[in-house]
Each structure stands twice: as C-alpha cells, then as structure tokens.
Amino acid sequence: MKFDDEEKAGRFKDLLERCGHRLDRAAEVMADIESQAPLLSAVIERHVGEVTGVQQRTRDSYRSITRLHINPHLGHKPIDKIERSDIKNWLNKLEANGLSSKSISNIHAFLSGVFKVAVREWKLIDENPCKGIRLPSSSLPFEATFLTYGEFNILLSHVPDFFKPLCHTLARTGLRWGELVALQVGDVDLLAPTPYIRVTKARKRVPGGFIVGPPKTRRSRRTVSLPPSLVEILVPLVANRPADAPLFTGVRGGTLWHSAFAERVWQPAVAAATATHDNDDHPIPAEHRIGKTPRIHDLRHTHASWMIAEGVDLMTVQRRLGHESITTTVDRYGHLVPDQLVKAALAAEKSFLAELAAMPNAEDPMEFTIV
Question: Where's the Core-binding (CB) domain (predicted)?
Fold first, then answer.
C-alpha cells in the first residue's frame, strides 16, 4: 500500500501489528478511522428520534432491536463503510443465533428503512446495502392443532368453571390472547340485533413490561359476531358491571396473565384430557380423552377450522380473525378446504367454455378437455 505522508504510513504500520499482520483487517480499520461519516449506531438513533407516525412504545422497540441485534455486529462501523457482504454476514449470524425467519425479516426491514433514509434524505450514502439481499426462509411448516367439537368439550371438562367462559370465547370467536385480555365490558354488546365483541385494542409485550395499545394490524380492528350460546355464557360477565371493567380477570379479580393461566389452568387441563389412566390407575376410555396437546393459541386455529367445516369462505375467515392479508389465511387454513380447489377449477372451466362458445366459428366446446 502507498501513503501520501509518513504519519499515515506509521499509523497503518501500527494497525498492521495490532491486527496480527492481517493486511485486509488493518486496511478495513484504517478506512473506518478515516471515514468522516457517522457510525451506523448514531444514524439509527437519529432515525428513531425523527421518525413520524409511531408511538413511544414503537421507538422503544426499535431501540431494543438495535441494541440486541444490530449494534453488536454493525453499529461500530461508519455508515459509508457498510457493504452488502457485511449485511449478508450479519443476517447469517442472526440465523445462526436462532432467530426465526420472521424476526430476521422484521429486523432487516427496519435496518433497510434506516439506510433508505440515509440515501434519500441525509445523502450519507449512495445506495442501500440491504436492498435485494435474499433473506432466510423458514423451512418449518405452519404448526397448528385443530380440535373437533368433541375434543374441545373433553378438554373443557377439565378446565375450572371460573375459566370456562374464557375458553369458550377463545374457541368461538378466534380472538388472539392479547385481544381477549384487553377486552372491557363496554366492548361487548349482547343486546344488539346481532350481539358482538368490538376489538379495538390488545395487550402487547414491550421492553420492560406490557402495555394495552392498538391491535396487531389495521384489519385486527374488527367486530366479531357472537353465537347465541356464547351470549348466554357472557351475560353474567357483563351484567351490572361498569363499561371500563375488564371482561376477564384472574380468580381474585386481578390481571389475567398468559404465563399464569398456562401454568395453572391450561397445562393441567391438557394433561388431564390426554391422560390414559386416572389417579387410581384405571384406564380412561379413548372416547373420554384426546390424542392431541393443543396450545392456548390453538383455540384460534380451532375456531377457523370450525368455520371452514361449516362452509364459511376464506375471505370471511380472514376478516373474522383479523388477518391483514388473505394470503395468511390461505397459507394457514387453505388445506382444510380442498373442495374449494375443485370449485375453482370448475369455475375456470365454465368461464373458458362460455368464452369459447361465444367465439365465431367455434367448434363444439364440449369436445375440449382441460387437463
């Protein structure tokens, strides 16, 4: 390497010795030192401070992501010295550390947004090194346990009476846990022509604890109609209670937490429902137990499966569950409606034959076969 002055050459020599005579590493450190651009960590903090249209909890989440997953790998580098190879190595490290593909995608999207602002608004760099990089994709299939009506009733028989209304609501509305525990009495209208629950908020985990804020996505704000049997179950929870009272609580009236409910209610109920022998070691008949170990969230999936079994279309399922995209609904529950694929094929054939018949000089359309 050639240098313009002796002082710079001396600094490089010192760096080379500190880097174990690795020329490439010494050159990289030298470039970082001489760069006039701010460090990536400083650019991210500026972006988080200036971004508009987000709540404080979102800023806190961005800072947590930066502290845990970005700064340890890239935060010390000047932003103009970060290359695509650095981004690829960083993504591979995140995957090696066990982060899910969804988490990696979210973190990458956040960092890409920072680089985009650095290019367009602040003119710190010429291009976004995150752009066009292939992200890790999960090889794990979507996992869900679907309960039949009978299996749900067996499981429910082992749930304490106090918590039965909660389980009924999860299974008969498809609400997420965070949406359910954020419900207040005023969110329920049992006297409407079509009784309903209005989902407008959800409990969420944030750095340092939990908050109640907007639900997961824009489409998660929704009205969920209630079947008559669930209305009867919810009446005692609504009658003569103030509108701002929580609909569901712990046994003593306190806040209902997922971890406590899972440990003290759900897991014992699943264990009892799947047991092959009772406490006296007598065999439990197969028809009185289930061969599945559902999670609490599987009641949401179970609700979807019940709707589909009754012929409800996937678009309606999407809206009821609050999925932002129909793609999510199809990916998760499309296999439950194989007959829909047959209907789609027949509809396509009918349309094709109708258009063919309308063509001048068309041959007999019934002679055509669609394979």
Answer: 34-119
